[in-house]
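[job 4471] stage=fold_predict status=RUNNING
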Amino acid sequence: MTRRMNGFLGWQLKATTCACMLLFGCAQQPAATSAAPVASTATSPQQPASEAPGAAARADSPRAPIDPGVLQALDRMGDALRHLKSFELQVSTTTDEPLANDQMAQMGRSAILKVRRPDALRADMRNDRGDRKVLFYNGQKASLWDPATQFFTTVDAPPTLAELVRVLADRYGIELPAADLFYWDSNKLDERGVHSADFLGHAEVDGSLTEHYAIRQDGMDWQIWVERSAIPLPRKLVIRTTDVAAHPQHTVLMRWKLSPKVTSADFEFRPPAGARQIVIQTLDSGATSPRIGTR
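[job 4471] inference complete, writing structure tokens
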């Protein structure tokens, strides 16, 4: 039996990374009206305060709105992401979502992603209301499984993860957890639209020493904490929307496992007994997700 159910795939888990902000953020949104953030007196991301030349002089003078060292650090992070061939990522998020009376309600979500580049993904996604979905992608087909209802849907899929993310978002309205990680495969950081970029110092996140950055763009302020190690991966992200009166905030925590045990079977969906297939409806023709243009 095949059913058509609109909205089965509408459950979204947004756990974007800084790639979203610099590559596919909100270029078409109106400019933020809030003032630029106060310049940090922190030193270069690569040197502690006691070692950085001219640290005292810089602390007493205003800094340029965009610290080139921040953009270079984000480029290094992007390069590290692009070179990951296989990994497991645990994501937990809290998101402010507007109620009918414009009050913000905080919602929690989590996901475990197993990835084998360029064409394999398994994402086990949950929210704090008990909803669970599991996505399987093997380079040819993408299947979404709801264990509670026994419903699943399978669609033809493009050959790479970056293309898959675009197809699911633009054709079906599905946002994958940490989706923008996969855009780093084929895009370089685009500095257009960045109004300020600051290094705020070092901070501990989940037991790891990180470098803390703050970036401002049209319609949003965001912060990212990047692990201070040979493989500089993002560990925390906070996004604050500034062109909405309530200024909702989205927070992401990330835990990485860089040598997971994965097999081809992890990415294949085999419907269990009693499973019922449904057909997912597509979005209205012409609907696409907003993106910042890339170089």
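[job 4471] summary: The helical segments are 18-23, 55-59, 68-82, 161-172.
[job 4471] exit 0
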